[in-house]
Amino acid sequence: xxxxxxxxxxxxxxxxxxxxxxxxxxxxxxxICKKDLSENIELVIFGENKEKGLPKINFKVHQxxxxxxxxxxxLLYNSCELFVLxxxxxxxPGTGIESHACxxxxxxxxxxxxxxxxxxxxxxxxxIPFDSLSLANEIYWSIENDERxxxxxxxxxxxxxxxxxxxxxxxxxxxxxxxxxxxxRNLKM
Length: 189
Description:
Structural class: alpha/beta
């Protein structure tokens, strides 16, 4: 199966997170996919109440509810081919960074800080903002070729290790604070 992952606090009911755009894109995806691929795509959703009704789509949907265990969340990211982040409004969403840390590529609209997370066609793909057809095409591009998907997964994990690793980020902050401290000390002299 080709598992597509969507997750957000508030899930598909938060307008800013673009769940409605995701469902539109998935309806389009069903029409542009080759039949053998289309029959193997399933959607996994986390971050919302499992009982919440979802729009009808032609893919099997697995609702995971709220996940409070980091190990389970890591397993979920790792089990999916792609994380879809169709936000209308987002700065630097943790779900995109978490996804890359697990080696899962991300497809999102090219808005806000998403282009800081996703290197287009290298660690995922960026769609035209709020265009469901573009989002569907980028999802398809990311999953229809297994070698391409492996390339995206490898690059996503590498980027996470090189940029988002906590030791590297901590060092950047520490170096910045030392620089500010030294500037202030020099100003007082």
